[in-house]
Amino acid sequence: MIPLNPFLPSTAWRRNPAKQPKMPPNPFLLATSSSAPTDKPADTKELSKPVIFITSGLGGMLGWAIVHPANTLAVRMNLASMQRKKFDFKAMVAENGWMSLYDGLSAGVLRQVFYASSRFGLFETFRDYLHEYRGKTDFASRVAVGAVTGGMAAYISCPMEVAVVRMSNDASLPPQERRNYKNVVDTATRIIKEEGVLTFWRGSNPFVMRAMFVGVFQVATLDQFKVWYSNLLNQKKNSIPNVFCAAMTSGLIYSIATMPLEACKNRMASQKADKVTGEQPYKTIMQTLRKVSAEEGFLALYNGFFPYYMRCGGHTVAMFIFVQLLRDEYMKY
């Protein structure tokens, strides 16, 4: 008979699973997913699909109302370089007033009805379906679902994105070049009559690519940074300070990655055809990137980066906090 080795772990639990020793948690899984890989995500298991979509949309709308001025600045600073101008904030305020920072707010809020609700609603829906199929929710699945649903949401909300860009930048154009849009309905109606429905999707490729990048960088890194900050700064995970730091950091990463695509989208959405040839100056993403880099320098694609970052990080913070507050209130009833 072979003597029992006292240095090997007991195998008695194989005969009685109830005595199975508890293993320490895997720190890698803890850092890349908000839940154990075999558990269904806890944040949506008690919420119906309509509530998920509605709270996502409302959270996006409330968050956008806060950061819209930063978006207006980012658009105007970026498009000023297209006109070979130096953006002057004081001159803008003197000519158009402080409230011009809210030009296009109606279109921006309406855009969130389609973009935020579809993006985060579809993300959580697809994530749960994928969990049921694979039996786990891990880092790779979140990245894949974030990219796919981000692209889908972008195509859905393209018309409102074009309206936001045009209404936000119209006041900064020379008087003879302004379109003088009255509101989001007037903007949409005139675009259809004057330029055709397909104009709404003229800058869709950079917008969709940007949305896919945002889905990857934001979703894949947000939980990671929440864990890091909870350890480094001794923050309680999912507390307001923890969400704020994690969202601003992930916002910085995807702002750097997506700003060139944002610049392409803005230029393609607001461009006018040449009066002589009738051709559009910007046709595709790569052509726009090459044209801007050759004529203005690569860094011209990052004009307006700081307000763009404030928009991305600020909207991420505000939106996630509002969404969580709305869902917490819903669960009370």
Helix and strand layout, with pairings?
Blueprint: H1 12-15, H2 27-32, H3 49-82, H4 89-96, H5 105-134, H6 139-169, H7 184-195, H8 204-232, H9 240-270, H10 285-296, H11 305-332
Folded structure, characterized:
It is a single chain. This protein is mainly α and 333 residues long. It has eleven helices and no strands. The chain has helices at residues 12-15, 27-32, 49-82, 89-96, 105-134, 139-169, 184-195, 204-232, 240-270, 285-296, 305-332. Helix 3 (49-82) runs antiparallel to helix 11, helix 8 runs antiparallel to helix 9 and helix 9 (240-270) crosses helix 11 (305-332). The radius of gyration is 24 Å and the shape is globular. The model is unreliable at 4-15 and 23-39 (pLDDT under 50).
User: Which runs of at least 5 residues are low in confidence (pLDDT < 50)?
Assistant: 4-15, 23-39
Strand content: under 5%
Fraction of residues in H or I helices: 55-70%
Q: Whole-Å distance between the termini?
A: 65 Å
Tally of contiguous helical segments: 11
SSE order in H/E notation? HHHHHHHHHHH
Q: What form results from the Cα inertia axes?
A: globular
Task: Give the class from helix and strand content and strand pairing.
Answer: mainly alpha
Which CATH class is shown? Mainly Alpha
**What CATH architecture would you give?**
Alpha/alpha barrel
Question: How much is the average pLDDT?
Answer: 80
In total, the number of strands is 0
